[in-house]
């Protein structure tokens, strides 16, 4: 099946972001994409100072648009960090998924908050405004089961391992790595998660905006279960496509059967919630 990643240029005007995102979703569908993903924070600038201003409840304006365009195009739509979600007085970094009938199939709240301090380069603390999610998020398609993470979640191998154990064959991480962590770790982490779990890994970033207060790395990418990069964007707004070949996945697992060779008598991972 064909997967499309929309590397959107995000402005400060929510209505413009929503309109352009829906237009690119329609374009991807017209080119045969069955699963389409939007980047982290696609409807607002990324930054702790913006989260409260742009926050919505779910369902709300942004998720309604996503539901409508998913139904119109009869696709599975992964809505990036569609919005900062407001719920019960708390804010969450939330990714929603809609099916071909427009129904919401999953709602993933970012589990690991991005609190880092790299001296002389970047300091950022999502926990100043956001609360963490407390659950794993998966959804079924006629093609395969898909697991969801958001950006910083990709650094935590245990999460991807559990998704693999639960039968996911594709992991999608909307993300917005920056100009420090992007060149160092963006592709490395994707290839690591793909090889460790023998799954496809897709990451979808906002396009790079050098004038933004937080400059995203871009380079949305798809990696196959052998660890090969099979599709990759540059820094500008674009849509990239790749065909997810589940026969390739089965071949890799047959050739190197790590899933059946794990020493579960010595170690293991479990989902507690």
UniProtKB/TrEMBL annotation:
A GO molecular-function annotation: omega-amidase activity
Entry GO terms, CC: mitochondrion
Span of domain CN hydrolase: 1-246
Any Pfam family hit: CN_hydrolase
EC number: 3.5.1.3
Family of the protein in this entry: Belongs to the carbon-nitrogen hydrolase superfamily. NIT1/NIT2 family.
GO biological process: asparagine metabolic process; glutamine metabolic process; oxaloacetate metabolic process
Catalyzed reactions: 2-oxoglutaramate + H2O = 2-oxoglutarate + NH4(+); 2-oxosuccinamate + H2O = oxaloacetate + NH4(+)
Domain of life: Eukaryota
Entry keyword set: Hydrolase
Keyword Signal attached: no
Listed PROSITE patterns: CN_HYDROLASE
Entry-linked CDD domains: nit (cd07572)
Name of the molecule in the record: omega-amidase
């Amino acid at each position: 099946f064909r997967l499309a990643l929309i590397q959107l240029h995000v402005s400060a005007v929510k209505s413009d972001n929503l309109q352009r995102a829906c237009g690119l979703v329609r374009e991807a569908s017209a080119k045969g994409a069955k699963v389409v993903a939007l980047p982290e924070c696609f409807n607002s600038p990324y930054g702790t100072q913006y989260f409260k201003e742009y926050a919505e409840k779910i369902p709300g304006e942004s998720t309604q648009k996503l539901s409508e365009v998913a139904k119109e195009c009869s696709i599975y739509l992964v809505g990036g960090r569609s919005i900062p979600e407001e719920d019960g007085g708390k804010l969450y970094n939330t990714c929603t998924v809609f099916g071909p009938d427009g129904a919401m199939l999953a709602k993933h709240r970012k589990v690991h908050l991005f609190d880092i301090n790299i001296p002389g380069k970047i300091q950022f603390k999502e926990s100043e405004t956001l609360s963490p999610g407390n659950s794993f998020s998966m959804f079924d398609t006629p093609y395969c089961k898909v697991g969801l993470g958001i950006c910083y979640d990709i650094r935590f191998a245990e999460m991807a391992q559990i998704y693999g154990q639960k039968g996911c064959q594709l992991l999608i991480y909307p993300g917005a790595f920056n100009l420090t962590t992007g060149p160092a770790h963006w592709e490395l982490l994707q290839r690591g998660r793909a090889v460790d779990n023998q799954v496809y890994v897709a990451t979808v970033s906002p396009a790079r905006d050098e004038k933004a207060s937080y400059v995203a790395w871009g380079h949305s990418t798809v990696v196959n279960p052998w660890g090969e990069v099979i599709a990759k964007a540059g820094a500008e707004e674009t849509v990239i496509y790749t065909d997810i070949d589940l026969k390739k996945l089965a071949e890799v697992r047959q050739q190197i059967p790590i899933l059946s060779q794990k020493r579960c008598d010595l170690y293991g991972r479990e989902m507690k919630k």
